[in-house]
């Protein structure tokens, strides 16, 4: 009996050791988003889970604050440091404010990358842009200009005034305005990626600029809110809403005519690519200028002098393809 008991105890101990070893080998990658409850980021999480399944030894922790604040993200980051995660992949609400907390994470041996909306260079090892900023800037102006043959007034409805990606895209859009004669940018306003505030800001633009012909919103929350504001104001056909949106959310606006066309990269691909990069860097890939880091089915990210890389080009959605994509994301 004592021999049997000893054998069982040994077997139980071996099982426990195997289980512990398996857990220790699993990479825990935290996907930190600007705020929970936003469709774009929920789609990115699907991509992250796809990458985790493909890699086999990854656990995704999908997390973020309840609103789009740096303070909320800092709380999340500190909690992840306490948990001892292996990697943090963050879309930042403020590039500078979150950097000290992320520096602390890196000091603890945690891999840190930013994606979608960047972090100050000292707060991350690399940044993954969804696309080329210059290409996005040109695209959002072109989407408006293509349906304004006579030119006219346009306005931009952005997310937060500190959002890294939004500000860069707007800057690039402003640079290419001379390439579109007659297109006049009259205002840039901020809805903070909150549906109700974005709606009110769009209403304000409609009331303030009676000759407004387009609202450009390079944010998925803003474009949806602006299309609703245009619809409610009875301005379909007079004001075209365009920018960056999700097919699933924008299908109704395209159908009604509030939006003729819009663009977006695939957020599923973005979450997938960010996870692959975080995993490979955590496993020893060097994040340095000129490096090429694998992104699975998305190819490889080639880092520039600022340790930044672009994932892919944006894609235009309209009545010809919205049905195909609205059920995907």
UniProtKB/TrEMBL annotation:
Domain Periplasmic binding protein: 29-285
A single MF term (Gene Ontology): carbohydrate binding
Domain of life, source organism: Bacteria
Localization annotation: Periplasm
Chief place where the protein resides: periplasm
InterPro entries xrefs: Bact_Solute-Bind_Prot2 (IPR050555), Peripla_BP_I (IPR028082), RhaS (IPR013459), SBP_2_dom (IPR025997)
Any one GO biological process: rhamnose transmembrane transport
Signal recorded as keyword: yes
Claim: Signal is one of the keywords in the record: yes
Keyword annotations of the record: Signal
Entry's family note: Belongs to the bacterial solute-binding protein 2 family.
Protein's name according to its UniProt entry: Rhamnose ABC transporter substrate-binding protein
Species assigned in the record: Paragemmobacter straminiformis
Gene: rhaS
């Amino acid at each position: 009996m004592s021999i049997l008991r000893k054998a069982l105890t040994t077997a139980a101990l071996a099982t426990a050791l195997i289980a512990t070893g398996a857990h220790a080998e699993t990479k825990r990658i935290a996907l930190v988003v600007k705020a929970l409850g936003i469709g774009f980021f929920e789609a990115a999480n699907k991509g992250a889970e796809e990458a985790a399944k493909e890699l086999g030894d990854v656990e995704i922790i999908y997390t973020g604050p309840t609103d789009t604040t740096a303070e909320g993200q800092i709380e999340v980051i500190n909690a992840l440091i306490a948990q001892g995660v292996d990697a943090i992949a963050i879309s930042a609400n403020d590039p500078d404010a979150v950097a000290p907390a992320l520096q602390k994470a890196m000091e603890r041996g945690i891999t840190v990358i930013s994606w979608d909306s960047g972090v100050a260079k000292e707060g991350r090892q690399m940044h993954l842009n969804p696309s080329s900023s210059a290409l996005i800037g040109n695209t959002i102006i072109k989407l408006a200009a293509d349906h304004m043959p006579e030119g006219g007034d346009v306005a931009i409805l952005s997310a937060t005034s500190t959002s890294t990606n939004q500000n860069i895209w707007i800057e690039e859009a402003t640079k290419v305005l001379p390439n579109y004669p007659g297109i006049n940018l009259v205002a840039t306003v901020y809805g903070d990626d909150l549906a109700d505030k974005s709606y009110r800001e769009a209403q304000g633009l409609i009331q303030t600029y009676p000759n407004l012909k387009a609202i450009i919103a390079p944010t998925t929350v803003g474009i949806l809110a602006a299309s609703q504001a245009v619809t409610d104001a009875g301005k379909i056909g007079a004001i075209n809403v365009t920018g960056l949106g999700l097919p699933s959310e924008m299908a109704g606006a395209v159908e009604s005519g509030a939006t003729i066309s819009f663009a977006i990269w695939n957020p599923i691909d973005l979450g997938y690519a960010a996870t692959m990069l975080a995993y490979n860097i955590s496993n020893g890939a060097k994040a340095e200028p000129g490096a090429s880091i694998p992104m699975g089915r998305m190819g490889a990210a080639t880092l520039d002098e600022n340790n930044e890389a672009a994932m892919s080009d944006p894609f235009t959605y309209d009545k010809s393809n919205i049905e195909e994509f609205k059920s995907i994301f």
